[in-house]
Amino acid sequence: MPTDFATGLRCRVCGKLYPKGPTNFCTDDFGPLEVDYDYDAIRANISRDKIARRPKSMWRYGELLPVAGVPSVGPQVGGTPLIRADRLADALGVERLWIKNDAVNFPTLSFKDRVVSVALSKAREFGMRTVGCASTGNLANSVAAQAAQAGLETFILVPADLERAKIFGTAVYGAKVIGCTGTYDEVNRLCTQIALKYGWGFVNVNLRPFYAEGSKTMGYEIAEDLGWRFPQHVVCPMAGGALIGKIHKAFTELTRVGLVDQPVTTKMWGAQAAGCNPISDCVKSGRERHKPVRKPTTICKSLAIGDPADGYFAAKLMRDTGGWAEDVTDEEIVDGMLLLARTEGVFAETAGGTTVSVLRKLLEQGRIPRNEEIVICITGNGLKTQDAVFEAIEEPAVIKPTLAEFEALSGSLTAEPVLA
Amino acid sequence: MAIKVQVPTPMREAAGGNAEVAVAGATVKDALADLVRQYPALGSKLFDGGKVRPYVNIFVNDEDVRYLDDLDTKVTDGVVVALIPAVAGG
Ligand SMILES: [Zn+2]
């Protein structure tokens, strides 16, 4: 039963320490707050054996998460497969490639289940009855589902032009869904104002420091499944820019608490859509801070955050680790989705197509050596963004159910007959 | 009528407990200078070395000033300037 080793919330700008509570920024400089831990105590309490004996969920790394004991929300989240992707590797011309597949995360088929499980466990601990979020879709799905499980009242604010499957997949759980005209950034600002005024638990606002920690578990799982070591390269989609940083933070923590006995030399690579590329533009142009994109235009709505709050940290991380960022067109995004589905049987959402095509681009540019170990992060399920690939999929041929018509059609097909 | 600056909850103590402060000026820069003149304790929260801190977002009538003329954005009587902490994505 893991103890809560979090000591407080620390400002990422000035380092000031705050007590654990539903707050997300420093009152001196408005810098973002991040959970701080007693790593020496964690080191003395954690071991590979102890972790191996626990169920395969994200909570097997409970000492490194800011919740005490069994989490009250989402105890089964995480523990998704790390797939050795040899057919995709062949198609891309690389030797060793893995897919971290959060398209099959429980319960709502995206990595957001990880962050929401932590955020809502804390919301209950803080005695909140009402929770909510601003969302591009996946977060909304997860907050709605897990809040239903926790018996919390839920308000979800989304851009009104979101994919229908994502709006439906939120409302079905009984959440109050409010579509707002405008961009994600405008919706997010409204949530900040509501959170400041009403004190509800907004998972990506006043619960954010706790929420963000859930992302680390993708990194722990990658390292454990590789045999407690790190890959040479991780390619990660970027929306707000937090996930890529948290995966790297997970690696450094594993070294710090003694679970991995090698230094972190992993290069971090970020993927965005060309129609909303503030972070990759920041990296490529050498700017220190990103320039916000006012009106994102891409089919990849889950990455369409024009003003990513972690943009600065993400860009710095990629530069510091020797990585880089790229962005791809909508057409390349669809190509990436189809390539992944047809080589590995993984139907990822548009963000996954973005990640695959960005990897291809980075390989073509010679930035990632083809003989080194690469992990790509798939963060959401393609069933939610089917609209994006409808036009690219051939309609099935229609015949009468007779052998003659089938054979007439299959004359042009290539399958080997079983019987002579 | 004057220009109104909306102060977020965590800054209100430094603004004499006010949620809204009336200021004068022709640009956002002037308006914020007047705000800091009235409530000097806000100065270090909003600015660092003369520049607005990166995690403070400024809106003029609900439009982010980074899409306008930033601190040189013109303001007139009746305009609402909102100070909102930058927030992270979903
Ligand atoms: Zn601070």
Description:
The complex is a heterodimer of chains A (420) and B (90). Chain A is of the alpha/beta class and 420 residues long. Chain A has a domain at 82-108 and 213-389: Rossmann fold (3-Layer(aba) Sandwich), CATH 3.40.50.1100. Chain A is 38% helix and 15% strand. Chain A has helices spanning 39-45, 48-52, 86-92, 112-125, 138-150, 164-171, 184-198, 208-213, 216-225, 242-256, 278-285, 311-321, 330-344, 350-364, 387-390, 403-410, and strands at 6-11, 17-18, 33-37, 82-84, 96-101, 130-134, 153-159, 176-180, 201-202, 233-237, 267-273, 325-328, 373-378. In chain A, the strands form three sheets. A six-stranded mixed sheet of chain A has the order 4-5-13-10-11-12, with helices on both faces. A four-stranded parallel sheet of chain A has the order 8-7-6-9, with helices on both faces. In chain A, helix 4 (112-125) runs parallel beside helix 5 (138-150) and helix 11 packs across helix 12 (311-321). The termini of chain A are far apart. The mean pLDDT of chain A is 94. In chain B, strand 5 and strand 6 (63-64) form a beta hairpin. Chain B has a single domain, classed as Beta-grasp domain (Ubiquitin-like (UB roll)), CATH 3.10.20.30. Chain B is an alpha+beta fold. Chain B contains two helices and seven strands. Chain B starts with a strand and ends in a 5-residue tail after the last strand. In chain B, the strands form two sheets. Chain B has a five-stranded mixed sheet, covered by helices on one side. In chain B, strands 3-4 form a two-stranded antiparallel sheet. Bound molecules: zinc ion. Residues 11, 13-14, 16, 26, 28-29, 31 of chain A line the site of zinc ion.
